[in-house]
Amino acid sequence: MRPNIDITHTLHGRIKDYAEDKEMELSEAYSELLERGLESVAHPDES
């Protein structure tokens, strides 16, 4: 299910493809990718 946020259909399609490739539910894919993104913002690389 697409979250109730304003994202492009292209981005939604990419997440949908990711979910299918990983054999996961769409909501799981959204959660995983959002958590990864938040981790990268909260803990940026120090290189």
Summarize the topology:
Elements: H1 9-21, H2 26-42
Please state roughly what percent of the residues sit in beta strands, choosing from under 5%, 5-15%, 15-25%, 25-35%, 35-45% or over 45%: under 5%
Shape: globular
Sheet with the most strands, sense and barrel status: none
Helical/strand content category? mainly alpha
**Share of residues in helices:** 55-70%
**Integer average pLDDT:** 87
Q: What order do the helices and strands follow?
A: HH
Please describe the structure with a list of short key phrases separated by commas or semicolons.
2 helices; 47 residues; CopG family transcriptional regulator; 0% strand; mainly alpha; globular
Question: Would you write up a description of this structure?
Answer:
With 47 residues, the chain is mainly alpha-helical. 64% of the residues lie in helices and 0% in strands. It is built from 2 helices and no strands. The protein has helices at 9-21, 26-42. Helix 1 crosses helix 2. It is globular.
Q: In brief, what are we looking at here?
A:
The chain is mostly helical and 47 residues long. The protein has two helices and no strands.
